Amino acid sequence: MSDPAPPPRSLAEALRARDDASLAVLLRSRPDLITPVPTDLTQLATRAGTRASVVRALERLDRFAVQTAEALAVAPDPATYEELLGLMAGDEGDATVTGALPHALGTLRAQALVWGADDRLRLVRTARELLAPSPQHPSPTGLGPTVQEATAGMSPGRVQEIVAAAGLPSTHDAVSAVASLTGLFTDRRRMTALLADAPEESLEALSRLVWGPPYGQVTADPAPRLRWLLDRGLLLPTTPGTVVLPREVALHLRAGRAHRTTEPLPPAVEVAATHRPQAVDATAAGQAFTALATVEELLKDWDEGGPAVLRAGGLSVRDLKRTAVALDVAEPVAAFWVELAYAAGLIASDGEADERYAATPAYDEWLEQPPDRRWARLAEAWLTATRTAGLVGGRDAKDRTLSALGPGLDRSAAPEVRHRVLTLLAGLPEGAAPAAESVQARLHWERPQRREEDLRSRLARWTLDEAELLGVTGRGALSSHGRALLGAPAARTADETPKDGPGDKLPVHHVPHRMPPHPQPLSPPEQAAATAARLLAPLLPEPLDHVLLQADLTAVAPGPLKRPLAAVLGVLADVESKGGATVYRFTPGSVRRALDAGQSASDLHAFLAAHSRTPVPQPLSYLIDDVARRHGHLRVGAASAYVRCDDDAMLNEILADKRAAGLRLRRLAPTVLAAQADPAALLEGLRAMGFAPAAESAEGDVLITRAHAHRTPPRTPPEPVPDGPPVPDATLLTAAIRAIRAGDAASTTPRKETTPARTDGALPRTSPAETLATMQAAVLTGEPVWIGYVNAEGAASQRVIAPVRVEGGFVTAYDHTADEVRTYPLHRITGVAELADD
Question: pLDDT at residue 685 above 70?
Answer without folding.
Answer: yes
